Request: fold
Amino acid sequence: MSKREVRSIGTAGWGRTAGAAAISLIYFFPVLFIILTAFKTRQDALAWPVKFFFTPTFDNFVSVFFRTTVEGGAAEATGFGLYFFNSVFIGGTSVLLALIIGTAAAYGFSRFPLRGNDTYLFMILTTRMMPPIIAIIPIFVLFRIFGLSGTYVGIIALYTAFNLPFSVWMVKSFFDDLDRDIEDAARMDGSGEWRVFKKICLPQVYAGLAATFVFAVILTWNEFVFALMLTSPETRTVPAQIVRTIGGSMGVDWGLMSALETLFIIPVVLVTFALQSQLLRGVTFGTIRR
Amino acid sequence: MSEAQTDIRLHNVTKRFADLLAVDAANLTVSAGEVVCLLGPSGCGKTTTLRMIAGLEFATDGDITIAGKRVNHLPARERNVAMAFQFYALYPSLTVEENLAYPLHAEKLSRSQIAERIARVAKVLELESVLKRRPHQLGEGEKQRVAVGRSIVRTPTCFLFDEPLSRLDIQLRQTMRTQIKEVLAQLDKPTVIVTHDQIEALTMADRIAVMRAGRIEQVASPHDLFSRPANLFVAGFIGTPQMNLLEAILLDATLSADGGTAANFHLLGENIAATVEGAVARLPAGSKVTLGARPRSFELVAPGTADTLHALVDLIEPMGAEMLLHLVEHGIDIRCVVPHTMRVTVGERVGVRCKPRQLHVFDEQGVLVQ
Reply:
């Protein structure tokens, strides 16, 4: 399965293709609507009936980064460059950290089970059973006491902790599916445990790691509540800032909001597309005959 | 190194998994250049025995000695033992070439030395054209050869094979059997092969160790195993169609001048006289015994002939040049192989007689009387 087979419409049948297209359109319509609105002037955005044909403008995208906030004043930088950087930096770092720690833990749980292994695994899972919002006050207090509020270290540590349980469970399932004989063969061939892990096991779960990475990135990228509570203007992420952009003296600027959201969607789409083939293998891991 | 120092010795090797006794005091010696097959039904402990030699399982008790050194405490990677796995266990993320090179990393060889070794192995096993491929792009036979190649690319102290041919189709199996045999013959190292296929064991092994429920029942050459099975289990396990095992009463037995024993038995309601091997005369008259006769040891004779069993033909299975007759008498099934030219019909009553000296006598404990 080195290359995915691309079926032509003829093979799949026109009826099925049309059906798939219709369903896709229903799912994609809200996103499409946002993207369209991002290119509309304020009048077009508010027009009724909805305009699907209009003269596109890039003003909204410019406004994301520079706009006048005081009537009659000069355009100022909105700081969204920094917020996008923060989102990428905080999300990327915490997901990578969670993946590294999670992979190590998953390998341990899978290959060197302790007495009560399943209990530990279950405990890890229970940390995600409770809605995170319940913990927000203690976490807020903790962050205050340890001076972590508003710091990169604080929010990265928090997101890493959030992503860990899920990463451990998911990566463990990939390790569990591997053929143990292959590892035994490596041991027979003179490999120590570290080499078995690095040279033999790890390369076999790359697809799984990619899938875990994407899911964690999406979760972290969209996280709002903790970002709102625990970041400062310097470390604020995009979702926490979007909410501050909603208001304004002239009501909600839908064009601006849509432009923001469009920009916000792009990185996730890019990551998902880049890892698409790995993802497909990752989510179907173990379900296909090897 | 002398002959005695390059062998594998198992002395009272035992393996327990919690309550399960997987291997019970196994004793076995495999000398240099010798191929020993561990043969037995599923779950008899043969693979566990192999894995203990490999160092993938540790023996609960007993001594495992490889090349004169006790290795019980050594992990697999320090034993320098090569093993080919049942499902090949090729490294999926590496090419064939890298798979073959993998065992060499511990030897600290130069690039050219590694290339040379790989080239040699690839040539012997005809893998030159697939060196750049990955395992999932290979056929079953090629995978098998890579697995063998990976074990012979370095110079281990001994070779272990776990069900090496079980995944191949019949034709490929025969080719590979010869190929593996040829490769092993040149290496002059002790080799242990685990298999549940007796044809594989009979053709590849110098000696066969038959295992059942964790115990080694008999270690013997394929010929001896076939002609002198040590007990009822081995008798019933080796040989197709299966040996007939018939319960009988020993009436009397006397040593005859030519070294055989002339014995009279009562079985299936008839008294028959037969010449048998072994010290049957030491058993008291009236002993319960089990008589073992291979289906090919029987010949059909006219009913009423002296010393003949009589039975009804129940089923005829053609086997090409021969046919397998299922005979029934007193609710006991007797299997008998006769030439296909024989005229026999289902429902007919026939007389069968065992050819001289082809009857095995087992005592009440099921042990061969010898």
Observations:
- Chain B touches chain A at residues 54-56, 75-77, 80-83, 85-87, 89-94, 102-103, 105-106, 136-137, 150 (CB under 8 Å).
- Chain B is about 20% helix and 35% strand.
- The longest strand of chain B covers residues 244-255.
- Helices of chain B lie at 46-54, 96-101, 111-124, 140-152, 170-187, 198-204, 222-227, 232-237.
